[in-house]
Design goal:
This protein has no helices and 24 strands. The chain is mainly beta and about 290 residues long.
């Protein structure tokens, strides 16, 4: 289907909260594209500088032009896929498949699958490329073994090498940690339902997506221990993961829109959520400034 782009006037946002000592306001523009396709989602990854965005869709990965929403390609057979990591220097990409505990290795140019790598620990989830060590790092589903008070349920994480600060995304209030001491140096108020963080190092901007509150909190790092909320950008309910192109300085989120369950669907079991209906739209958000 032809992607549909919406740039609503209400989504052309000036900074709603600019601290006086920052001395500047920024305007954040939001484009929204209906990219179509089947399946749910988890993580997405922007390829630096090319405009391509890789989006997990449950059993396949869509590759989309972030500037137009045009679908550029698709990587099939990725059962219960979660995340995508890209290694531009070697022209390879990697996808975690929780359904069969494998990692799909593919060619960045052609998108052709090179091989499937078994990882028998089970529960494969997140994935990232660490350029410092030149390694692909995998994470799996687990329960927290500690807390970072006052953070509730830390999920997303980013690291600023220049200031040696860790940003931990949490529902309602995220934290900044000094890794040398392990102490929380400050907190950041944001929405609820956080599952990732976006970090643009050269712009010193943190993007905190809140899936329950349907927004993204944009924060500027003024100094290692001082941060200013610049804007709260509207998205949609459920959009809780995010990726940033550090070259084009665009943040992307993705979330399917579900219709009602088909008539005659069985009721949910006691204590469980109502299963979603069919996908009726698939929204890619692009936040630029």
């Amino acid at each position: 289907m032809t992607p549909r782009c919406v740039v609503a006037p209400a989504l052309l946002l000036a900074a709603v909260l600019a601290a006086p000592h920052v001395g500047r306001a920024q305007t954040f523009k939001v484009a929204r594209f209906n990219i179509g396709g089947d399946g749910g989602t988890d993580y997405l990854t922007a390829e630096p500088g090319t405009g391509r965005v890789f989006i997990s869709r449950g059993t396949h990965v869509m590759v989309v032009d972030g500037a137009s929403g045009k679908v550029l390609g698709d990587i099939p057979d990725t059962p219960r896929t979660h995340g995508i990591a890209l290694v531009p220097a070697s022209h390879h990409g990697f996808i975690t498949n929780g359904g069969d505990s494998t990692v799909t290795m593919f060619d960045l140019a052609s998108l052709a699958v090179i091989k499937r790598i078994p990882v028998r620990t089970g529960g494969l989830d997140g994935i990232m490329y660490d350029d410092f060590s030149d390694r692909i790092i995998l994470t799996n589903h687990s329960r927290p073994i500690g807390t970072v008070a006052p953070c509730e349920g830390p999920t997303g994480i980013a690291y600023d090498r220049a200031t040696d600060r860790i940003f931990s995304g949490c529902g309602k209030r995220s934290v900044v940690v000094d890794p040398a001491s392990g102490k929380v140096v400050t907190t950041i108020a944001n929405g609820d339902g956080v599952d990732a963080l976006g970090w643009d190092a050269s712009q010193r901007l943190i993007y905190i997506p809140a899936g329950r509150d349907s927004n993204v909190t944009v924060v500027h790092e003024d100094s290692p221990d001082h941060y200013s909320v610049l804007a709260t950008v509207a998205t949609m309910r459920g959009a809780k993961t995010i990726t940033v192109d550090p070259v084009r300085h665009v943040a992307y989120l993705f979330q399917p829109e579900y219709g009602p369950p088909p008539p005659g669907s069985p009721p949910p079991a006691p204590g469980s959520r109502t299963p979603p209906g069919p996908v009726v739209a698939a929204w890619l958000f692009a936040i630029s400034h």
